[in-house]
Amino acid sequence: MTEKSRSDDCHAAINLALKNYLGEAYVEPARKTIKSGDYRKIGRLQIDQGVIALVQACKLSGGSVADMDLYKLVRIYLWDKDARAAMNRIVEAKDLI
User: Bridge-partner residues for 68, per DSSP?
Assistant: First the structure.
């Protein structure tokens, strides 16, 4: 099995699980890969669905709990190039990459 077919199978399995979990609230993903220059085109519901996948995969108690809001974090990271650069600087300064 090639890397591409493993990746395609993974995408299909994740999206099927999300569709089962979210029901009518499920949002179909983009058909083509979205490049970094076009991240602003990703809709809020699609981003939130991605956060839900992360929350479920990591067994987190939620995506917005107490002082943590992964929904807002991921939205601003993808939609705002300057905010993304600032966040990347913080992460690099903490030597977490």
Answer: 65
Residue 79's SS3 state is helix
Please, what is the end-to-end C-alpha distance for the chain in angstroms? 30
- Report the greatest alpha carbon distance in the chain: 43
State the Cα–Cα distance between residues 33 and 16, nearest whole angstrom: 18
- Separation of alpha carbons 82 and 40, rounded Å: 12
Q: What CA–CA distances, in Å, run from 3 to 8, 10, 50, 82, 89?
A: 9, 10, 22, 33, 31
Q: What is the pTM of this model?
A: 0.87
Residue-wise pLDDT for 46-93, tens only, equals 999 999 999 999 999 999 999 999 999 999 999 999 999 999 999 999
Q: How far apart are CA 68 and CA 71, in angstroms?
A: 9
